[in-house]
Every structure is written in structure tokens, then in C-alpha cells.
Amino acid sequence: MYRDKNNNLKTPGYLGRYLDSLAVHCEKLICFMHSPRPDEIPFMDYTIQSANISWVNIGPHCSTPRRMLQSHQFARSVRENRAQLDALLIRGPSPLLSGMASAADNLPVALLLVGDSMAGIDDLPQPRWRKEAIRLLSWWNSRQQLKVAQNALTFVNSHLLYQQLESKISNLHETRTTTLSEADFYIREDTCLQKPYRLLYTGRIDRAKGLFEMVESVALLVKHGEDVVLDLVGWPAKGDTILDELEQVAREKGITDRIIYHGFKAVGSDLFAYYKNADIYLIASQSSEGFPRTIWEAMAHSLPVIATNVGSIPLFLKNKDTAFLVKPQNSQLLAQAIETLLQDATLREKLIHNGRTLAKQNTLEKRATEMISILQQWIS
Questions:
Q1: CB within 8 A of 353, min separation 6: which ones?
Q2: Are 165 and 216 in a shared domain?
Q3: Quick check: 35 and 57 in contact, CB under 8 A?
Q4: Statement: residue 320 has pLDDT above 70
């Protein structure tokens, strides 16, 4: 978080929208957060709307090892402002989680766990020694997090994570994290009404998201005579060469004009415009996955969704006729699923309707009300 030249509080959109939804139910919402590095400022794309949200700067965003080693120092601001608080909600996994919880002292502590720090390490574009160092740090952090969670109110946004923790944590609640307000829904009955058909992926530009399989599936579809384009919207990790590698694959397949990278777009109208212009949403995660908020965004914009059956995705969507699920790491199956949706309007319309109905159960308004109600009971 930071203040811009007009003194507005800025934060990433997915977080800012969530904070504003909570602030409706609070007299005051104090955010203990780092200030961003210069390279992170472009991702601070959202202006906080609620006048009752304030920011306490706990220091510049720095490396994970340093935050782990100095977590109690970063948490000093919590100790200094403890008298103003009724409860402390800590978002994790975070290297500061244990230190922040300790600083709360006798305050009620709640956790919102939005991922598993041990998942996805093997997919990182890092040398083996560095992956093992990250694995060790993540293991230690997970142990400290579990100790805190056993005495805290804990929310998790993944059904898979809920299943892993339900025998270890007594006060555990499953929730959904979303960026959608009730006003964001875009209603249409069908897509794929004109060529070229636009396939869309939004989110991190990451190998683990199955982007190479997406590019290869486009090549297969073009070979079959389908007129398709793949739009990629998101951001790669700093120093990752994945965009160059994707371009190379597209060049080898002769489809460079059909793979279009649009860069990072702010949550809200900038990002949502791509959903409105798309025909099918793709997410082809290769292995562990929570439940990506981008699926909710796609469903809210009346898009049929094709996803891989990994992590919590099939737990939320299986047998609900809300999405077309395929096995991961298989471009042939992905292409077949896309071709099926292109040719079957009845199936598209069913997925669009059922997906949108499911997404309407998961708005910021509904989730914030639910979370605050549980927090109030915990505090009392």
C-alpha cells in the first residue's frame, strides 16, 4: 500500500476491493502493510474508496528471509496500535504471520489463508538449490502458521486446504475470495457468435498455469480449420523469460498472429473489458491450485469456462454443469474441449447460465457480510 501524489491510498485491485467490502461493516479498518518497491508500484492499481480505512506503514517490502527473521520488528506497529483494535485479521501465508499474531497479545486473532506456501515450488523458474532453500523456508513458515491457527479463528479459500487442515484446526471456516461486486455482472446468453473466436486467459503469466498447452491447443485448432485467437492478460514474475518462450513456440507453430499478450490490466473496467470481448475462458493449471478468482470473474461475465481438474477446482465445480473440466498437461484434450464448446451452443449456454448463477453466490457483499458475522461471534 502507498499514498499517491493526491494522498489517495493505493493497493492491488484484488486486495483493495476486498478491504473496501470489509470496511462497510467496520467503524475503522487499520491496515498494517508494507510500502511497495518501485517495481511494485504499477501493480498498485486500485484507489481505496472507504474513508474509514487507514494505513500503518510497517516498512518497505523486502525479502522473505528478512521478513521471517525480523517479523517481530515489523510487527512493532501492531503492538503500538493495539489499544485501537478489537481484533487482528492476518492474511497468509506470510513470513510475518507468527510475529504479527504474537504482537496481538490478548487480542482475538483471525487468519485468512489464501494458499499453501508449500505448493508450486517445483514449478518456480529457479535453480534446484534455490528451490530447496525456498522449500525449507516454506516448511518452517507453515509450521509456525499452524501453531497460530490452532488458537485462532481461521478462514481458508480453498476446499483442498480445508480438507488438509480440518483435523488440525478446531475453528476452521471455508470462504471464497473474489473481486466481484453485484454491479460487475455482465449478462448474455451465448458467446462464439462471430469469428475469430476469442479464447482468454487472465492472471499470472506462469508455466504452472498451462500456458504452453494453451498455445499448442490453438495450433491444433487452427490445423483443424478453426478461427481462434488466444488473448493473454496478466504479468510474468520478475526476470522470467516465459513470454519469449511462448512467442518462440507460437513462431514454430506458425501462429504468432493468434497469440496476443496484452500486459497487466487493473481489476475493474480495464480487466473486465477483456472478459466481455471473449468467447471462452481457459485456465489449464498443471498441478496444485486453489480456486482462482479469475474463474469467478469469467463466470460473472457470462463466459463458458474450460479448466483443468486440479486442486480445489473440481471440488467446487464437479457435477454442477458449471465448467468443462479436462485433465492437465494435455494440449490435445484442451483443444478437443475448446472445439466441443465452439460447436455446441446448447452446452455453451448451459455452462454460461449455471456458471453465472454460481458466481452470484460469491460476491464481495455476500462474503464480507459472512466473514464479519463470524468474526463478531469470535470476538464476543
A1: 189
A2: no
A3: yes
A4: no
